[in-house]
Amino acid sequence: MLAICIIDFVFYLCLGDVGNYYYGQGHPMKPHRIRMTHNLLLNYGLYRKMEIYIHTARQHVRVQQADAAL
C-alpha cells in the first residue's frame, strides 16, 4: 500500500536586519534575496494567510547577563 503525505505548511523566518549584510562575491547566501522575498510577502498580502509568531530577544539577553557574571 502506498502512503502519500502532503505537508500544507511552510516555516518562514525573517529577521529585520538580515538583508543588510554582504558576504562577498561567490558566497552562496544572498541576503538581498531574503529581503526581496519579505517585501514580496508584504506587498502581495501573503502575510495575511500566515500564522505569525514574533520572536523576542530574551534568550540573547540572558546569555549576555551570564557572560557578564563570569
From TrEMBL:
Q: Which UniProt keywords apply?
A: Signal
Q: Does the keyword Signal apply?
A: yes
Q: Where is the signal peptide?
A: 1-16
Source species, domain of life: Eukaryota
Question: Which Gene3D superfamilies does this entry report, sorted A to Z?
Answer: Histone deacetylase domain (3.40.800.20)
**InterPro entries attached to this UniProt entry:** His_deacetylse_dom_sf, Ureohydrolase_dom_sf
Supply the name of the protein: Histone deacetylase
Question: Could you tell me which species this protein originates from?
Answer: Oryzias sinensis
